[in-house]
Amino acid sequence: MQDAVYNKSFTLQSGARQWLAIAIIALLGVGGAAVYWKLRSQAAVTPESPAIALPEIKTVTALGHLEPDGEVIYLTAPTSGQESRIEQLLVQEGDAVQAGQVIAILDSRDRLQASYDQAQRDIEVARARLAQVEAGAKAGEIATQQAEIARLEADQQARIASQQAIIERLQAEVQNAEVEYQRYDYLYQEGAISASNRDARQLTLQTTQRNLQQAQADLTRLQSTRSPELAKAQATLSSITDVRTVDIQVLQAELNRAIAAADQAKATLEQAFVRSPQDGIIMDVHTQAGEVIATEGIVEIGQTDQMVAIAEVYESDVQKVKPGQAARIFSSALPDELRGTVAWVDLKVQRQTVINTDPSENIDAKVVEVRVQLDPQSSQAAAKFTNLQVEVEIGN
Question: What angle do CA 71, 73, 78 make, to 5 degrees?
Fold first, then answer.
């Protein structure tokens, strides 16, 4: 009986607790819904809080390398059809050189020197021939020919004098014959002699007169006409003393041609001496004495007194870089950071050539080269670090 009453009482208590739990849950649900709608309504009318402005990043960081201002010159020999070999190398790495200084001598030097020397001798020969023609014949030849002419002229005068003597003799004979004829003609007129005697004296007179006339004609001919030998001798003298313009022109042309050939030989010889095109430092030697010139050339020359850093800035950052901005350069190989100023920004986009040691960061990036001019102190510190990979920080 008591057990039945107890069970009934327990059942009533259990039911009351269940209803109480249900009521509490319902109350919590209604309260939660009210709170939700209140918060939602507040959110709808509450204005948005302003976004926090992050500071703009004005510094650009890029990889790059160091190099001399004006870039490195890879000095080689002039191109030719023959393989060039170094005979003498006159510098070594680290030497300071000046523009025009001989760096190396090629093995073609001796052969080209011989050609130049021969060209110089050809000039001397051509010049001597021209001088000889301009001066005419030698003095000895002229004197000999003049003596020959004098001898022939003396012979001519001697013949003239001889002929004059003949004329004088004939004139005397004519006078005697004329006196004799007049005397015989008088005797004939007086009848003292025969006509034949007179005629004989007349014939003698006529003969001597004809002889005198002939002698006088011969003298005239001698005085007015040169002997063939004298004419020939005078022509010879004229030929050896006369300077012909055409001969001088021909020999002058030969001299000019010899001078041009010597100039060409000198220019070719000069190619055997490899000279530095600028002041600078020998940064590396690629070809030693006795070796054929390497594809890299003979030596590398750089002007390390002024160094620059070539930074490869991502194309997305290049608009932040302007000439005149300050820059700092870092590398683990440098004891201190370097400082400089942006001097120039390239106008073209290219592939990245300086890569990071982290393979994950080496992507096919597009970059723009930026040249940073180092200050004097930094240039001095960077002089021995050409091609060193560096990190460049560019900012205001």
Answer: 150
